[in-house]
Amino acid sequence: MNTQLRIRRHGVWLGVGAAVVLGVGTTALAAGTGTFDSSAHSPYMAYTARCQAPAPIGTQVRVTVSDMGGMMGGGSMMGGRSMMGAGPMMGSGGSGYGFGRMGMTVSPQTVPAGTVTLDVMNTGMRDHEVLVLPLAAGQAIGQRTVGADDRIDESTSLGEVSATCAAGAGDGLKPGAVGWTTLNLAPGRYELVCNIAGHYGAGAFAELDVT
Q1: Can you tell me whether residue 88 is helix, strand or coil?
Q2: Where are the domains of the chain?
Q3: What is the Cα–Cα distance from 64 to 105, expressed in whole angstroms?
Q4: Is residue 184 packed enough to be buried (19+ CB in 10 Å), middle (13-18) or exposed (0-12)?
Q5: Pairing between β-strand 188-193 and β-strand 130-134 as defined by DSSP bridges
Q6: 56 closest CA partner among 126, 135, 124, 115
């Protein structure tokens, strides 16, 4: 009788184990086929459907700001230099991703002087912003001094996109949202940056050339 009881118990545990394995397998399959859905990701998609920039004035420049917050589990792993070793050396050249945890792309990278509309899309899992800073002759992007507050000097900014589903400055461009601004840019080189603490040092910058 005791033997039968042990067998039954083992049978129950085997059944539970099989159910768990089956559940994991089903979840993995769903994720692989693109049908996996989790409520934890719903905030990321909150603005995607209802955010739309108006028709651009002048030359349109599409800017994308991104991060690896979703893959890294968010939270403190995306913090400033103390958590990431972030600093100017973490950035890359060009208009693509930095060697850090964040990136920015610009398309097209070269535009004619005059009226330019920046349409910015946040494809990351964190709030972002885009500021437009002039570059001095011979100055490379990603090389500005990062202060103790993990931010750079933005006093020379010519414009900003940090409002969710709106133009100009705000409280931060939310994940999945777009924002925009229209500027009159003279010929020269400009660095587009995200100056939320830690983001510039983590690679959130790109170059825009105006001819």
Answers
A1: helix
A2: 2-37, 43-210
A3: 5
A4: exposed
A5: antiparallel
A6: 115
Which pTM value belongs to this model? Answer: 0.67
Superfamily of domain 43-210: Cupredoxins -  blue copper proteins (2.60.40.420)
Q: Kindly give the confidence (pLDDT) of every residue in the chain, 211 residues in length, as a single tens digit, with 9 standing for 90 and above.
A: 554 444 444 444 444 344 433 343 433 333 333 332 333 344 455 666 578 889 999 999 999 999 985 433 333 333 333 333 333 333 333 334 344 589 999 999 999 999 999 999 999 999 999 999 999 999 999 999 999 999 999 999 999 999 999 999 999 999 999 999 999 999 999 999 999 999 999 999 999 999 9
Distance CA 132, CA 57 (A): 17
Can you tell me the distance from the alpha carbon of 11 to that of 57, in angstroms, rounded to the nearest whole number?
70
DSSP reduced 3-state for 38: coil
